[in-house]
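We both want to read discrete structure tokens more fluently, so let's practise on a single case. Once you have written the record down, we can walk along the chain together.
***
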Amino acid sequence: MSTVDSVVRPFHLAIPVDDLVRAREFYGTVLGCAEGRSAEQWIDWNFFGHQLVTHVAPKPAEQPHHNPVDGHAVPVPHFGVVLTMSDWQQLAERVRAHDIAFVIEPYVRFAGEPGEQATMFFYDFSGNALEFKAFNDLAQLFAT
């Protein structure tokens, strides 16, 4: 497989949420994801072309962990998507318009270095950390 496939297969990720109404508000309204199938305890989302499923589950009791990256405390675990720069900027504006607090404000990480990328972090309403990235040069995705 090449470093950046020309055809990327959608991933599937299931995450815990504590309230499906709030999940609908966050993923549907804030992020603008289309809702797919659903049942009493879960909802499928079109998460930027990938399948994200929010399942009702109890919150873990442990404290969130953070690792230092480029001078910022990055929440672990986290997930997200690499967007085009235009889509990344639009999402940052959308998140701001909905008064979602950023864990790490939108900025360019590793500026002038291999892997330079725009990034932002924020939590959903159930405490799941999300990161969205964009590259001016997608070939930098796996740069060392």
Q: What stands out?
A: Residues 101 and 122 are 6 Å apart (CA to CA).
